[in-house]
């Protein structure tokens, strides 16, 4: 059985570090052939298991080829159906039209690349799309030509929630959402969102949480008189790190006798701006130190929980899937403060930290940090955090089950009824938010 895993860049940098925990479970199957097909391939790739191949057939087109697919997209029914949806939903704007054209051209180009790959290496039994984006749409189009038998896709956060996109527009989603053999959502909340927002057929959606390897050792708490707070995220508007800064100021001001340290792990376009904000707002607090590590490799983030005491992880994002960063902290026995957005409630509760309201202000975040750090029962929170990961987010169990599900889909008979992509009527039926 031939499995093609379509990624944005993995095994190349940047991002998609969580596939590193999953890929070994694909390599463990002797009866399947696995090829990674990244859309971007720059620099030196990360190591992959010996039984996993890497193909560059989808790694971009330059110059005349790119222009050609833009012209093809202009004549495509896919693009004109997108314009119909944008007009109907009152999202018609020069930028959304440009994105509709760009995403249509990328889907058509990537479909052609998949066809060429299949012609050279044999038909793909299952195209597994790590993101529910243009590559997933391309795989559906390639299936219609016979280059691919089955198409499955994960869906996370940026490829799910419309609020995270400019003008609240998720290109091509409504046209293709009914065409997948299976969509693997991370949580029940994500499944409900797929059905409610895009009209995804419920029978095609499966719940398959990500997972993390259980930490062999647990983080240790700070000694009396000290507190270490960590946050792990890209520096983006959606992460609301300005509220994190304000909450830390409130907390440090309340507890002048406690020596506090805040470590933020993650880069991103707003890194310098966030650092400047921290320097401005946290100045004058002689009991609070902070450091920004920038982007770290996946393994280096895990090591952070063991190298020094860590008392809590704080997440302030306004939109998430089910964050692996939270799983990794809890696996090491670190309590978590995070808002009730996306699938976070499947991870965080009062048993292992504090689940904030979806839109917490700085005072609510500071109060929650105060409870985790200084209320009775801190050791119990740490033990419960680890137990929650063991129960629901153990990589060994979750990834074995996921791989087995995808292989079973590849072994099943074709279902031509499910493969009929819904055109314009599907768009009209699923425009709600």
* Number of helices, where a helix is a run of at least 4 consecutive DSSP H or I residues: 15
Shape descriptor reads globular
Question: How many distinct domains?
Answer: 2
Q: Ranges with pLDDT <50 over ≥5 residues?
A: 416-433
**Using DSSP, what is the number of strands?**
13
Notes on the protein architecture:
This is Colanic acid/amylovoran biosynthesis glycosyltransferase. Residues 101-214 form the Glycosyltransferase subfamily 4-like N-terminal domain. Residues 414-433 are annotated as: Disordered. It comes from Rhodanobacter soli. The protein contains 15 helices and 13 strands. β6 (182-185), α7 (188-198) and β7 form a beta-alpha-beta unit. The protein has two domains: 2-211 and 397-429, Glycogen Phosphorylase B (Rossmann fold); 226-392, Glycogen Phosphorylase B (Rossmann fold), CATH 3.40.50.2000. The chain has helices spanning 19-27, 64-74, 77-88, 94-121, 134-144, 173-176, 188-198, 241-254, 271-281, 298-307, 324-331, 362-374, 378-392, 395-411, 424-429, and strands at residues 2-7, 33-38, 52-54, 124-129, 148-155, 182-185, 205-207, 226-232, 259-265, 288-294, 312-314, 336-339, 353-356. Residues 416-433 have low confidence and may be disordered.
């Amino acid at each position: 059985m031939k499995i093609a895993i379509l990624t944005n860049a993995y095994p190349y940098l940047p991002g998609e570090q969580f596939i590193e925990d999953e890929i070994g479970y694909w390599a463990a199957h002797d009866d399947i052939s696995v090829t990674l097909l990244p859309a971007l391939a720059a620099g030196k790739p990360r190591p992959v298991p010996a039984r996993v191949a890497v193909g560059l057939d989808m790694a971009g087109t330059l110059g005349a080829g790119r222009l050609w697919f833009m012209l093809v997209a202009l004549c495509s029914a896919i693009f004109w159906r997108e314009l119909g949806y944008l007009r109907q939903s009152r999202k018609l704007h020069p930028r959304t039209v440009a994105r509709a054209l760009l995403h249509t051209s990328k889907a058509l180009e990537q479909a052609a690349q998949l066809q060429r790959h299949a012609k050279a290496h044999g038909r793909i039994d299952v195209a597994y799309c790590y993101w529910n984006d243009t590559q997933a749409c391309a795989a559906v189009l390639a299936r219609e030509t016979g280059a691919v038998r089955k198409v499955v896709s994960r869906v996370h956060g940026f490829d799910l929630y419309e609020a995270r996109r400019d003008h609240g527009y998720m290109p091509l989603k409504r046209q293709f959402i009914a065409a997948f053999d299976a969509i693997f959502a991370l949580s029940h909340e994500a499944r409900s969102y797929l059905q409610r927002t895009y009209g995804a057929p419920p029978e095609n959606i499966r719940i398959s949480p990500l997972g993390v390897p259980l930490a062999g050792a647990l983080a240790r708490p700070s000694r009396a008189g000290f507190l270490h707070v960590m946050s792990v995220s890209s520096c983006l508007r959606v992460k609301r790190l300005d509220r994190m800064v304000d909450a830390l100021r409130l907390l440090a001001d309340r507890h002048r006798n406690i020596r506090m340290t805040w470590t933020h792990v993650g880069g991103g376009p707003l890194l310098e701006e966030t650092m400047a904000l921290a320097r401005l707002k946290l100045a004058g607090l002689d009991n609070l130190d902070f450091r920004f590590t920038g982007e770290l490799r996946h393994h280096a983030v895990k090591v952070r929980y063991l190298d020094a005491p860590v008392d809590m992880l704080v997440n302030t994002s306004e939109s998430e899937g089910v964050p692996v960063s939270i799983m990794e902290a809890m696996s090491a026995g670190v309590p978590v403060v995070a808002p009730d957005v996306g699938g976070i409630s499947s991870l965080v509760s009062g048993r292992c930290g504090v689940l904030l309201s979806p839109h917490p202000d700085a005072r609510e975040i500071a109060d929650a940090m105060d409870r985790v750090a200084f209320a009775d029962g801190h050791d119990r929170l740490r033990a419960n955090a680890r137990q929650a990961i063991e129960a629901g987010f153990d990589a060994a169990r979750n990834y074995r089950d996921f791989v087995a599900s995808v292989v079973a889909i590849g072994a099943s008979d074709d279902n031509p009824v499910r493969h009929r992509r819904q055109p314009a009527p599907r768009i009209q039926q699923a425009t709600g938010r």
